[in-house]
Amino acid sequence: MAIPWLAALKVIPWGDVISHAPTVLEKARELIDRKRGGSDAAASSMATPNAPASDVPSLGELKNRLLAAQNQIDQLHTHQAQMAQTLTDLAEQNAALVVMVGALRAKQRVLIVVVLVLVILLFSWAAFHGLNGP
Fold this sequence. Notes:
With 134 residues, the protein is mainly α. It is 86% helix and 0% strand. It is built from three helices and no strands. The protein has helices at 2-11, 14-44, 59-132. Helix 2 (14-44) packs antiparallel against helix 3 (59-132). The mean pLDDT is 80.
């Protein structure tokens, strides 16, 4: 089961992901700001549907429908704000992950150089002691 994940990770263009992470974070923040500012305007600009004259509901029924619709709208706005916040959190985590991946790559390069130097020293030491004999 781990093999398909490894194959998928190799296929992902990580360079593009890393280069676009700041843009994703910025757009997520813009989305949250836009949704926070535009929620009142969207609620006030809702159109009322036209009903046929024969199916006119009573005033009490209209008030109940209006309250139910307003509750649904409020729930949707809350859900949308939560989703926008989640998107921003994910974008920030992605940006932090990109920074950590860069740091791990740098550490990996240093570790590879250290291992190569140690291997060269080990072979030099073995060759020196092998030529001098016991």
